[in-house]
Amino acid sequence: MADDTRDDPNRVWPTGLTIREAEELHKHVIDGARIFFVIAVFAHFLAYVYSPWLH
Amino acid sequence: MNQARIWLVVKPTVGLPLFLGTVLVISLLIHGAVLTHTTWMPAFFQGHAKTP
Amino acid sequence: MNRVSTSLMRSWARAGTRFLPFADAATEDLPLARLLRLSLFQVSVGMALVLLVGTLNRVMIVELNVPAWIVGFMVSLPIIFAPFRALIGFQSDVHTSRLGWKRVPFIWKGTMLQFGGFAMMPMALLVLSGGGNAAQWSPWVGWVGGGVAFLLVGAGMHMIQTVGLALACDLAAPEQQPRVVGLMYVMLLMGMIVSALIFGTLLVDFTPALLISVIQGAAVATMFFNLIALWKQEARRPSRGGEDAPPERAPTFRDAWHSFSAGEPGAVRRLVSVGVGTMAFSMEDILLEPYGGKVLHLTVASTTKLTATFALGGLLGFGLASRVLSRGADPYGLARRGAMMGVPAFLLVILAAPFDSALLFALGTLAIGFAAGLFAHGTLTATMNSAPIAQRGLALGTWGAVQASAAGVAIAFGGAMHDVINGAVPQYAPAFGYTSVYSLEVVLLVATIVAMSPLLRRSKAAPEVTLSASAPALP
Description:
Chain B is an all-alpha fold and 52 residues long. Chain B has helices spanning 6-9, 12-37, 40-45.
């Protein structure tokens, strides 16, 4: 890694991300989890409709 | 986002595969358990479902 | 593990330089292994296309007994998203990211959508067919479920392809772009052919459980291909905007569109010719096979070979276009020549009916594939070449939007026109319905040639390599 990122006061170690970068990354993680959750709920509902599961 | 600062401590290259991998493993375990503890699901996967 | 995959990649790359016509697509900046890896996103798009338009289409009608109109409606749902490709491309251009990524977030989101759509699609299809316990529920459950699944896959597919092409364009130096375009097209075609074969073999003994396995397998494969394709491709540029600077006001889509259409002369004309030309080349899409079967009385096996012939023509077209364009030929000129070759190709297919000649038909099909390959490659390369760096996503997005919408509309229109004409004049059926669609395509091709002429004169300054020397002689 180049020296200028190592000396950047905004970067937090051990990972070397800035707080804003971590926030953006986290936004993607949470958004992904939400999309995934909604799709999983929908799929399980369809499986419930089709199969003898819980009937 | 509340817990965003976790990525200042945990490297995303470690934490993300760990997180997503855990989700994968748990879901596989649960579906596997359903597969072994019901009668209709193994039958379905043996091709015994009625096609319309 | 890592070492194995590296050496595997190397041998791939070596085999590539020997067998692929795109060997020198790679330079020091963008080695072939990395380029092949990036092109895997096209494989996942090809797979999705084949599943939606080919495999599931058939499975729903034959195995699941879903009414044809519902199937037609579901399959055409992804087309709704085609016009939004321009918007997606634009957003990836102006995306401000602290992580310094413009394209990766969009390809990732597209991958999520396609994955999610495929993950729930088999359940939705089974409910749609009214099997299992689903008959006790309102049919609306199945319709909404199927609609959502198809919409998700369609949206994901368009997103991945638009932004993926923009990323490829970002990574490739201008002189590499023709070869990169060729490689992208070839990988799309390969993905379609290979996954059509695989899905066909897997679904021979159809059971509902098998449908779930196959489609969810496609979902996992999507994730797998796109992760590999995307891994460490786009360089991070975290300095954009600075750490604490407020994000600069992004231009609106309207602003960007105005500067895009005013910036380069002929932008709108180019889009119009892409649209008309694509319509001309895709109207016959679902009509060639039944034409061979009903009019020329070919067997199912030989009409399937026909599809392979068409794809082979396309491959030859992409290969030749890559060669010629990377020597500095004018991409508009090449696309125009593709349209010109399309005219005799469609005439051959039309003449096959009165002469009752399968040979003429096969030649014509090969030539249509070839000409369509030249046209598609030429227009996409022209789009890449002329796109301003800051507007690549928008340029490729509009190209894709026009191209995909035109193809979708043309395929639907071609089918409808054939039905209407054969119904109106049953005494000339079945040949007349088909040949009138082909004739309309010839007319559209001529319109494309005329529409493209001014573009040609404008870029005459570039040295033009004559095509006739290297082109295979067309009948």
